[in-house]
Every structure is written in C-alpha cells, then in structure tokens.
Fold these 4 entries.
Entry 1:
Amino acid sequence: MGTEGGRPCPQCGQPLTADDRFVVWCAACDWNVRGGNEDDDEHDGRLDALRRRLSRRYGEELFARMTSERPPRPGRGAAYVGAQVIAGLVHLLTLAVAGAGVWLLVTGWRAVVPAVLGVLLLGLAWLMRPRLGRMPRHGVHLRRADAPALYALLDEVADTLGAPRADVVVVHAEFNAWVQAVGLRRRKVLTIGLGLWEVLTPQQRVGLLGHEFGHFVNGDTGQTFVIGSAQRTLAEWYVLLRPQDDTSGLGMIETAARLLMFVPASAVLLLLHVLTHLTLRAGQQAEYLADDLEARIGSTEAAIGGLDVLLLADAVYFWLDQQYVTAGTVHRSTRDAARQPDEAVWERLKEYVASIPAHELERRRRLSVLTAHAEDLTHPPTHLRRAAVERREHHPAAIVLDVARNKEVDAALDPARRTLGREVLRG
Ligand SMILES: [Zn+2]
Ligand SMILES: [Zn+2]
C-alpha cells in the first residue's frame, strides 16, 4: 500500500504511510485514520449521540433490506407511500383553497366581502401551487446538434434501461451529476459535473449514466416533483403562519391571534419534518436501486470503482479551489511564460487524482465506515453502497465504451472544458 519508508507508528510500531501530501496514518492499527477530523462522538451531547446511533442503525437496516433476497421495488416501501400520501394531501388542500376561492367569487360576486375573500383565497392557492421547476441557467448547455456522439451514447443507455431520452445536457464544474425533469413538458435534463466526469474511466462514465437514467426508470424524478413541491408548499404555509419573534407593543387581540396561529404553524412544521424524513428514506432507497442499474449498464467492477471515486470528493474540491488561488497569485509575466490554455486544468486534475496513492483511498474507505452517520443524508454512506453492489449478483457491462468511442464522446465536452476551465481559474 506504499507504506515503505514511513516512520514507525507511535501506537503499534508498523511503518506509517510516507506521502506527506496526504494524511500520514497507520494501516495496521488505524492510528490517525481520521487525519485530524475530530472524533465527534466525544464532543457532542447525549442527544447528538443518540441521533447518530439511530442514523447508523437505520443505515444498516436499509442496507440489509436492499441486499436481501427480495429488495423493495422502485416506488414501493413504507417511506415512499407515506411521503406520497402526505404530499397528495398537501396538494389537495391547495386545490380546495382554489375551489373555495372560485366558489366565493361565483356565488358572492355582488357583495364586497365574499369577492375580496375569494380573490384572497385564489392568491393563496397560487402561492401554494406546485412548481414545475426550471431549466438550469448556469453551466454550459449542450443540445443534440452540438454533441451527436455524446447523445448517441446517452440514448443507448436510456434505451437499454427503457428510460426517457435526455433533452438537454448541462455541464458544470462540480464533482457530481444528476437528472431532473423540468417545465410543463417535463423536459429531461442531465447535469454532468466535469470535476467528476474527468476522473472516471470510460466504463465508469457509462455506469454513471446508467445510474442517472436509472433514476428516471425508477420514477424518482416524478416522486421528487410531487413530494418536493409539497415540501415547498408546506414551507410557504409556515412562513405565512409562523409566530413573529417580536411580540412587544402588541395589543391583547393581536397577541391572542398570534397564539392562535401557533397551533397551525406548529402542525405545519411537524408535517414538514415528517415529510422531509420520509423523503430522505425514500431517496436513500432510490440510490441503492440506481446503483444496481449502474452495475448492470457499466459493469459491477466499474460501479465499485465509481463509488471509490466518490470518496475523493473533498480532495477534488480542494484541488479545484487551489487552482483559483494559484491562478490569482502567479505574477502575470510568469503566467504568460508558462501559458497554458484554460481547459488544461482538467488534464491536470486527472493527473492529480491519478497520483493519489492507494493508501489514501484506503484511508478514506475506512473513514467512510467510521463517519457513516455524518455523511450526506440524501445518499446512503458510500461504503454501504459499495458493499451492496459487491454483494448483489455481479454483472458484465451491458454497454462497452471502447477507446475510440470514448474519445469521440469526450470531444463533445471540449467547449464546456474551455468555458468551465476559465471559471475554475478565474472564479
Ligand atoms: Zn499503528
Ligand atoms: Zn443517484
């Protein structure tokens, strides 16, 4: 694991890792495996410790369910159904408010009070309406005509999975990728982050596309729309109903009114918490299912490799930030002397990631196990996702991206590389 030449471990005497660009730690006894990331178990209160324990236990339960003989099918499971029911009720309420507004206007338009009330209710319903989502404004947009080779691959992945094809590809500099459906026509948008795309092997890229289109097959984007818009509606309700902080100088009647509002405001807040909780559970389940499709499309091996790459997220972000800082401090004359095109930053990123030693990747794998409870709540801990892919039936690649085709597909991203390279270097 490249530990030759390291100092002896203060804890067990085995050689430590020797690459001082990264955390120096001991693979034999895990000395300094956290690398200065404080062990939060010791510093948090009892409530946090309980929350962490529950979150870890929930993660393990879900893992067991998703790797069992009969894992829950997409769109099933108590969390899904619960979240759908609550979201449905929220939208029904909006519909009822709108209906009441129309009714008041139709039956009472001659009198002032019902008419005003009717208009108010319609305004309220408009405020609470489900939002369809917009085409992202940022990033480089690639349409079919701009990138035929890329779209040919995307279509092949989509068709193999029985998923809808992408309408627009948005490229940005981040270390991630996702899909969404936007607008009245529910146009399918695939967002690719170059920070991630660049450091994946061709086969891992195919897998990533399988994962993202897998979210369309599993109906996750539709769920996100129904539930996400209900969450937004509840948040709007809360803003309307929430008690003001400053109650000084209020009369008796106003104070009483605010107290009266406290009950519905609390109810809305509680509902919002429940819905968020259920959504996170359903979302974690969806990730396992999308990982499975990732393995089927790109191969099990590529899916595992892709999950390992995810462990490098903060290293990549840190490196990208550094490029901006360095570009800002290098004197203009020296910069001109060694002038490199903006897009070269992505080549350098690849070189950097390739230079990360195996022991650093291993440290991050072990850290993922130790800090599982603290990871991003929308995704299961990476080590569990990896273990799930490994435990399920192994698949060969359904779509193979050979060297020639990879080159062709990748060339479609060159204009984005230039624009986003400039963005990374100049902010
Ligand atoms: Zn040791
Ligand atoms: Zn996903």
Note: Residues 9, 11-12, 14, 26, 28-29, 31 surround zinc ion (ligand 1) (CB under 6 Å).
Entry 2:
Amino acid sequence: MTFTRKTANLIPIEDTVFAIVSLAKKDTAEHGPECVTDATIGSLYDESGRLVAYDSVFNHYDAIDHRVKASYAASFTGNPGFRTQVYNWVVQGVKLNLAHSVIATPGGSGAVSTAITTFLDEGQTLILPEIAWGSYKLMAAENNIKSENYEIFDGNQFNFSSLRETMEKVSKTQDRLVIVVNDPCQNPTGYSMNRQEWDNMIDLLNEYGNKMPVILIDDIAYIDYSNDLAHARDYMNSFNRISDNVMLTVAFSCSKTLTSYGLRCGAAVLMAKEQKDVREAEIVFEKSARATWSNIPNAAMENFTWVVTDNKDAFLREKQNYVNLMKQRSSIFLKEASECGLETYPYKEGFFVTLRIPDNQVRHAVHQEFINQHIYTVEVNHGIRVAVCSLPLCKVSGLAKKMKQIEDNVFSR
Ligand SMILES: Cc1ncc(COP(=O)(O)O)c(C=O)c1O
C-alpha cells in the first residue's frame, strides 16, 4: 500500500549536483583548499570563494518596511509596477509589435513549468534540447508530459535539421508544438545563437505554424551575463516576424540577474500577434498561479522595480564586475583548453563551460577520475560542466591541461 497518488514517480530526485558539491566540501575539509578544485557550484562566487550578493540589490531590500515584506502582492499576476518593469527590462530598447502580458512567477522555474502546463495537455510531448538544464524534463514528467530531444549542435552551430526532424516527428502525433530554447548564455554549454540563427528559428516556427499552433519558450535566465550586454537583446527583433500561429513565452528570472536565487522571483512574458491569444494564456497562467503558489513575495517584486528604475546605474556597474570576471575565467580556461586540445562545446558567454564527451560511459569514467584527482565538476548529457561562475582565477589556470591529461589516460584505457 502507498499513500501517494497511483501515478506518482517514487524514485527520489537524483540531485547529482548536490551530491558532488558535498563530496568537494568533504575533500576540502580533509585535504585543504589548495588541493581541491571545486567547479560544481552553479551560482556566482567571488574570488575569495564567497557567494556574491549585490549591495546594489540587498542594501535596499534590507531597508524595506516590514509591512511591505509582510504584505500579499497586489494580484496573482504580480504587482503592476513589477509587470511593467519586467517587460521593459526583458526587451530593453527592442521595439516589438506584439501583444504582451507579464505574469510574476516563482523564479524562472515557475515561468517555464507553468508555460509547459499552459500550452500542453497530459500525454503530449515537449521538445527539449538534448544538452540542457535537467529540470525541464522533470517539469514535463511531473505533469504527465513526455519529452523529445533535439541535438543542439551541428559542429559549432545550432542544429536546425535536428530541431526540424524532432518537430516533424512530434507534429505527427499531436495538434501543437511546444519547444524550449535556453538562449542566450545556454546552460550548460555557454552557447548563444547569433542573429541569423534566431532568424532561422523564427522561420522554422512560422513554417510549422502553417499547420498547427507553435509555442516557443525562451528561457533567458542567464541573459544579463552576456559579454555584450548592449546587444544581448538584439535577437528579440526577430520576434517581430512571428506569424499569427506562433506564440512566445520568455522566461525571466531575478535569481541570476539580481543574485537573488532564494527570493523566488521571476516572470513569464507572453507574446503573440493577437491580443486575444495573449489574454487566453494569461487567464490560464493566472489560475495556475492561484492554484499553486498564489502570489509572489511582495518585497522581492518591489525591490526589483526599485533596482531597475532608481538604482539601475549602480546595479549595472556592480554586475559588470562579475561579467568581466567570468569573461576572464572562461577566456583563460578556453585558451588553455585549445592549446592542449581539450574539447569543449562552443562556449560564448555565461556561467558554464562544458567539455565535449559524446559517449556518456566514457564521460562517467572521466568524471570519476577527475574526482580521484580532486577536481569536482558536474556530469551532463554528453559532457562535463565546469562552473566558471564559481571557480576563482587561481584555480582556472592550469586546469584545462590537468583535465586533458586525465581524459587522455581514460581514453587510452
Ligand atoms: C537554465 C535555467 N533556467 C532557469 C533557471 C531558473 O532558476 P530560478 O527558478 O531560480 O529562477 C535555472 C536555474 O538554475 C537555470 O539553470
């Protein structure tokens, strides 16, 4: 007998990241920090190994009146000022001729998972990148939604033929297509599509839009860590070319943007040609919100609004230090990797670089050997993730060479 529902999956979440983080901590306690390279943690850490929490965000948050923190939000869809400022922040200078609505969500997770259940029925299939944040698949599975993967890369470019094949296959079994991309600054590869690739993406969505409704979920959790922030949103100009049968959900997260992972604040930005389509999705989102998290922390929303309006310059300056730092860390790693022939996926920017190891069994053996040599990383599908967001410069230098030697030893077994 079990008390949980019949369809519940009782296999515990295998939190591989958490397990490996603990191993690294234990090793550090036993052998000292000089001996250990911990490239597991997926949050922004400074050079002295401390979690970054921006002063330009948290000094004001600390000073917010207790009643503002205690209070419910103004609405299940979020506070009006927050909704307006999220839209402004997400699109910045880009002029979109689309109807839109913003729904406050608990982080980017809430935006992505609610988009999945808003647009797909149970038993239908979500289209996912095959190297991706593991939660997408879990979000689908928990809602009795299947998933089908497309290969992300064809050499060093986005693999449109694989995406097209996957869309074709899924379109034969259901009446709509829902596709996830995590661009720019993709987790875990650090890839960002260029303007041409975004144009190709919209062409493909429109092509299938001639047959059925097509929804693209663009997860932009890491967008504010692009190396070229002045142009990071330029690709959204391509959104203007969507047809009437294509809808977009841009999943925004304050977690990385404001270094406020624990405040659980983000938003879904719904966009379509027709206001009526946006309104329908908004109604479904609002009911999901009411039925699950109810409303988003009031003070978290108010603080975002204040930061991006009244403290924007100081915030951008503070954040830029870390964009620069990650660029330095990743450049050293990639330069050394290319010098010694360590293969990586085509990293452009963002929190993670991923080693390219197509065979998952070999990858597992390499990962294990890294651990034996006190190097801690995270296994992902067809690769090993190196978190440059948390790895100090002193640990980056020389790392690629060590990894390459270990890989060579494993490959030659
Ligand atoms: C690719 C990706 N999307 C979205 C998120 C959402 O994070 P949150 O729910 O904290 O906003 C994460 C967090 O790790 C992520 O890696």
Note: The domain at 59-310 is CATH 3.40.640.10 (Aspartate Aminotransferase; domain 2).
Entry 3:
Amino acid sequence: MNYKLPSSNLLGNPLNKNKSYVIIGAGISGLFLGYYLKKANVSFKIVERKEYGGGLLQSVQTEYGLVERAANGFIWCKEIQGICDDLDLEILAPRPTSKARFIVKNKKLRKIPLSFFDGIRLVQAFTKKHQQPFETLGDFGDHFLGKKITQQVLEPAFTGIYGASADQLSFPGAMSKLAKAFNETAYLRPAFKKMRGNLASDERKKRAAGTHCFKNGMGELTQRLVEYLKDEIEWNIDGRDLKDEKDNLILTTPATISKDFFKNQNEILFENLRAVHYNSMISVTAFFSKSAFSRFKEGFGCLIPKKEGLHILGILFNSCIFDYRVVKDDLLSLTCILRDDTADLKQLNQTDEWFKSLIVKDLDALFGVEESPLELVVSRWKDGIPLYSPSLYHSWFTMDETLKSVFPNRNLFGNYTGEISVRGLAQSSHNLFKGLGIK
Ligand SMILES: Cc1cc2nc3c(=O)[nH]c(=O)nc-3n(C[C@H](O)[C@H](O)[C@H](O)COP(=O)(O)OP(=O)(O)OC[C@H]3O[C@@H](n4cnc5c(N)ncnc54)[C@H](O)[C@@H]3O)c2cc1C
C-alpha cells in the first residue's frame, strides 16, 4: 500500500536551534513546545490571549468534586512521564474499578456487544488482504470487520476520541500508525504487530496501562508547565496583533484563529485553514448520590452507538476511574459527552436546565435514575474537536509545502495537524526536538 504520511506534525520548516521563536497560544500544544524549547536552550517566548494557560484543559473544583472541562486524562507515555519527573509532578494511576469498558446495546451495558458469528467474522479479518488504500475509517471497518461490527464497536470507539462517525474520518489521518504499518504488509495481524514493534521492548515493559491524570486534574499539568515557563509567557496578548514580519511564529491556536495570520497574504493557507471543520462538543459533568441509580455498573465508562437513539455519545465514570474525583464515597461523578450537529448550533446555546433534562432522560434509560443530580457543570466548546476528514488529511501536505516555500518563518502545530490527544501532542512535540539535543 502506499499511504502518504507527514514526516512531522509541525507543518512548515523544521525547528532550528539558532533561531528565536514566538509561540502563539499557551494551550497544551504551546506549553509542550515551550517546555522542550527551554530544555534545548532555544530562545523563545509564548504569547497567550487569555490571562491563564491550558486552553481546552481546565479543571474546576466544585462543592461535590472535580470537573474536567475537556480531557479527563491521557494515555500514559514515556514523554509525559519524563516531563512530570522533571517538574516533580506525580501522575495519578487509574483505580482498579476502571477496568471494565462498556458499549451500549439495546440500552444495556455490554463488555463485548458481539454475537458468536460476529466473533467468527473478527477472526476472519486477520486472513483478509488489504487491497485498495482506504480513504475513510469506515472503508477500513467495512472491509475488515463488516458494517455491523464497524457500527457497533469501531465507530463508537472513534467517536469517543474524534467526535465523528467512521465515514467522516480519514483512515491515514486518524490511524496514521496503522496506515504506516500497511505500507509494509497487506494483512491486519502483522500490521498490528508492526505497530507494537515500533515501541522499544524496554518501553513496552515500563508502560503503565490505561488513562492517567493528576490528583487535581489535568489543570495540574498545565499549571506546572506555566510555572516552569513563567518568564517566557506574556499574557493578554492577541498574537494576531504582532506586527513584525521577521518573527518566527509557531501558531498553536485553533485553525479558526490561525487562518487570520494569512488573511490577505496567502489564499492557499487561509482557505485550507478556514476549511478545517470543528465539531461542537458539550461536556456535562453531573454529581449524583450512588443511591440515585437502580442499575449502575462500575467501570471506565460506556460508548453509545448512534442506533441506540440517545443524545449522549459516551459517558465517563469519573469517580470509578480516579480517586479524588468526589468529596464523599457515596457520590458518583459522570461526564456525558454530546455533539451539536445542528447547522445553527441550536443545542450549544441551550440552558444548563435543558442539558440537565436531556442527560437525565438518557441516564434513566441506561441506569434507572431515581433522584436528580446534586450538581451539574456544562462546558460548551464551539470549536471542540477538529474533524479528521480526508480533506484535512490532504491539506496537511498542501499547507506544509506552502509554508516551506512562501512562509519559511511560520509553523502550524496543534490538535488539527496530526495528533488530537494530549499524549499524541506530547509525543509529536518531543519528536521535534530529537535533533536538538533532547533525549
Ligand atoms: C470535550 C473534549 C474532551 C476531550 N477529551 C480528551 C481526553 O480525554 N484525552 C485527550 O488526550 N484529549 C482529549 N481532548 C482533546 C484535547 O483536550 C485537545 O486536543 C487539546 O487540549 C488541544 O490543545 P491545543 O493546545 O492544541 O489547543 P487549545 O487548547 O485550543 O489551545 C489554544 C490556545 O491558544 C490561545 N489563543 C487562541 N487565540 C489566540 C490568539 N489570537 N492569540 C494568542 N493566543 C490565542 C487559546 O486561548 C488557548 O490557550 C478532548 C477535547 C474535548 C473538546
């Protein structure tokens, strides 16, 4: 197979140790880059529009417990472990009660929502040959797993990460590591082996399983990075007001903002950035008494396939995943993730009361709700999750080439340039610095 894959998630020229940089944005992307630039003794500053850092990652303490406004954790990796060791920040491992992961089928939580015949189909997937490059994740799923398993298992899993359906997601964009493995083999089993083989064996041994976080939430990581970078960050500055054409800018802002840096300067970059579509996401964290549910199962959470006809896409069982998420043992904290698909974003602007009745209705169908939530925090993200569509994937190459030839002193980096997760952003930031003396 011949999947074209970007050589790095930083679009534009590679970093140069002898240059001085201005990073626009102190979200986790800008903070990771700043951390490594400082370690590599490269001159830089970060400018942030708000008076605080972290971007989407915000942790809030309420009367009943902790609320994460976006990411509730990260998949452990040695890069984040390295940063935390250096900053003396202890990583919080998941609780044993977070082991079970569920997919909803007929409004019931199932660990494996598949029949005996689906199992046979899965085994057969390993003998099938990959013949045509897959454009979308749906094409991959249909070919190897069939429509039913794709809709029942693959799609909800990816909706949980990318907030989009399988047919909307680019296969090499959303599954770049598997696409890379398919460049060497046409079969699924050796492809998975190659993906695993890319991890050095000592790293595999050291690997901690599952989602991790911090005692006081993801905000603790961004806070610690902000403290480490305090001399380099300038607050309350809109990066678009920087006028010096000679500045070496690394834009870590969402594409909706980054496009403005090219307005009336370069139509290709402006249009490609303007075309990045963001799904509007709503995260609703609700605290309940444990006694409020007549049939709750402990676990990490559940994914909800579209055909179940519910509004919630997935639920995280926060107080089962981590300690310190509720102030008393007889409380439950759940985060419900929703997406607003309406053209005029009608849902996003609804009141908290409206969301309350919506999620209570869904939760009642799943767990039997007998009491109202004690507290509810609604976080609305209009530009929540970039859509990893085939057109976004193709645009990476166009934007990379255009930056290199027309704007050699500008880079784009963020959750729309190849990695969406906190772990992926840490790993791709780290990879950029391999040549600059960072281990
Ligand atoms: C609901 C939800 C749940 C998620 N769950 C998870 C999860 O569980 N695990 C996981 O790994 N990931 C998760 N993600 C994804 C992850 O949180 C994001 O991809 C990541 O935080 C994005 O970081 P960023 O720095 O690229 O962008 P942002 O967080 O958007 O940061 C951009 C920064 O730029 C600043 N800025 C904007 N405009 C300007 C300007 N003009 N001048 C200067 N500064 C500016 C902003 O104020 C902000 O600080 C989730 C995302 C959402 C929305």
Note: The CA atoms of residues 107 and 366 lie 5 Å apart.
Entry 4:
Amino acid sequence: MYETSEVYHPKEDSFLMSSILKKQLPRLLEKKPNLKFLEIGAGSGIHLETVFNIGIKKENIFSCDINPKAVEHCNLLGFNCVQSDLFKKISGKFDVIIFNPPYLPEDRFDKEKDTTGGKKGNEIILRFLKQAKNHLNEKGKIFLITSSLAEDINFLEQGYFSKQVGCEKLFFERLCIWELDSI
Ligand SMILES: C[S@@+](CC[C@H](N)C(=O)[O-])C[C@H]1O[C@@H](n2cnc3c(N)ncnc32)[C@H](O)[C@@H]1O
C-alpha cells in the first residue's frame, strides 16, 4: 500500500498518529460501537487501515484528501474517500476526526504541498479548527498533529479544550498529537 508515487509516504508523523489511535480508539469504541470516524488528508490510507483493524465498521469510516491521487488510492483500498479541501465536500457529524496536516512553515523548512502549512506553518490547522467544530458530534474528539517548528496554537482561543496524548522528539523538531474537545 505504500508504493504509490505522488501520495504522501507514511513517515514518523504517520507512525506517531497510528500508535496514538491504537491507544486511544479502543476505549472510545467501547463506549460507542457505532462510532463515526473521519480523516482529513488521508494520504496513503494508513490510518483508515488502522482504525478498520481496531474495529471501526467500514461503513463508518469516512475520509478526504485534496490530492486526487490519494483519493483514488484510498478508494482502491476500499475506503470512502472524496476529494475535498478540508470540510468543503464533507457533510454530517463525526465522533472522531483526525488530521495529520501540512504543518511546516513554508520558507525555512519546506515547500512540499503535503507538509507546508503556510507562512507560519499553522494556517491550514487554523482553518481546520474553525470548520471542524461544525462536524463534531456531542463529546466528539479530534486528534491532530502539530510541530514545534510552526507557530504555537492557542487551542482555548480556537474554542477547544486540549491535551497532549503523545509526542516524539525528532532530531530537528518535536511532533505532538493533541486530543481536542469542542468547548
Ligand atoms: C502529512 S500528509 C498525511 C497523510 C496521512 N494521513 C499520513 O498520516 O500519512 C498530509 C495530507 O493532507 C492532504 N492535504 C493537504 N491539504 C489539505 C486540505 N486542505 N484538505 C484536505 N487534505 C489536505 C495532503 O494531500 C496529504 O495527503
């Protein structure tokens, strides 16, 4: 599944997200067996496979990517994936929404469209946070990656309670996964 060119090849950020999903999702699934899951920016589909293996029903797994090649790839894996800029083509509400976003500041570190999150690195994330609220069920949760190389985000100001559920120090940056609840 990782062979496809032009689709984000899973890296440390992907593996960190996978490990957190394996830790956090079983308890949520136990509380709500019909849990509805959405991934924004599904890429290779690594997390769609992970949550399916954890026990989320395929018909409850939804995803999108802005890259049509990623959409095609995830569809070939048998998952519901649509081409969409964030939530533009997404309707309905979900219990869990995840995003391993483009999170690097443009000039200094990165020019790749999969990983560049704008001038400060957090612009796509801020757009995501604004839209995500309208798509969360009551008690719904977001799992989101941020990088120490981008400008910090004040989640309270964005309307979310936040807690870090996992971090990894790479040689030039620190990646963290946040669990967010809408206030
Ligand atoms: C860092 S990659 C993560 C891919 C995969 N989820 C993973 O963890 O390996 C970011 C993904 O988000 C997608 N993406 C970037 N901007 C997007 C947007 N505005 N809306 C939807 N997807 C976007 C990219 O095409 C890419 O597949």
Note: Residues 12-31 form the longest helix (20 residues).
